[in-house]
TrEMBL record:
This is NADPH-dependent 7-cyano-7-deazaguanine reductase. The lineage of its organism: Bacteria, Pseudomonadati, Thermodesulfobacteriota, Desulfomonilia, Desulfomonilales. It is found in: Cytoplasm. Pathway: tRNA modification; tRNA-queuosine biosynthesis. GO terms for cellular component: cytoplasm. The gene is queF. InterPro entries: GTP-CH-I_C/QueF, NADPH_dep_7-cyano-7-deazaG_red, QueF, QueF_type1.
Length: 146
C-alpha cells in the first residue's frame, strides 16, 4: 500500500477483492477533501453501463447515468461511486426513483454546492425515459440559476 493514502478511503485501497453490495442501502459512497474549495469547478461522471430491474416485471433495465456537480469541501471517490451504482443491479425501482435516490445519496455524502443527476434509460417497449434531478444549495448561484 502506498504512503499516499487518504484517511477514510477504504474501497480504493483494496486492490484484489472488491465487494459488490446487493442494494444502495448497503453501499458506501466515500469522499476525499477538496483541495480547491475556494474555486467553483465542475466534476462530471459518465456511467454508461448502469443496470437495475423493473419493479413490476423484474426484467433488466439498462441506462447511462451522468453526474455533474460543483464540490464544496468534499469530492466523491470514483471507485466507491462505481460500486454504489453497481448495487442497483438487483433492485427493482422506477427510473424516476433511481435518479432521485442517486441525487439524495450524493448530497448526503459530499454536500455539493450544486449537483445534477441525469438518468438516460434505454428504451423498453419502444419508450426511452430521460430523468434529470437537480439540487442547488440555498444561496449558491448554480449553473442553471437565473
Amino acid at each position: 500500500m502506498s504512503d499516499k493514502t487518504i484517511e477514510g478511503l477504504t474501497l480504493l485501497q483494496k486492490s484484489c477483492t472488491t465487494v459488490y453490495r446487493d442494494s444502495p442501502e448497503d453501499a458506501i459512497l466515500e469522499t476525499f477533501p477538496n483541495k480547491y474549495p475556494h474555486r467553483n469547478y465542475v466534476i462530471e461522471f459518465d456511467c454508461p453501463e448502469f443496470t437495475s430491474l423493473c419493479p413490476i416485471t423484474g426484467q433488466p433495465d439498462f441506462a447511462k447515468i451522468k453526474i455533474t456537480y460543483i464540490p464544496d469541501l468534499k469530492c466523491v471517490e470514483s471507485k466507491s461511486l462505481k460500486i454504489y451504482l453497481f448495487s442497483f443491479r438487483n433492485c427493482g425501482m422506477f427510473h424516476e426513483e433511481i435518479t432521485n435516490r442517486i441525487l439524495d445519496d450524493l448530497i448526503a455524502a459530499c454536500d455539493p454546492r450544486w449537483i445534477s443527476v441525469r438518468g438516460m434509460m434505454n428504451p423498453r417497449g419502444g419508450i426511452g425515459i430521460d430523468v434529470t434531478a437537480e439540487y442547488c444549495r440555498p444561496g449558491f448561484e448554480g449553473p442553471t440559476s437565473k
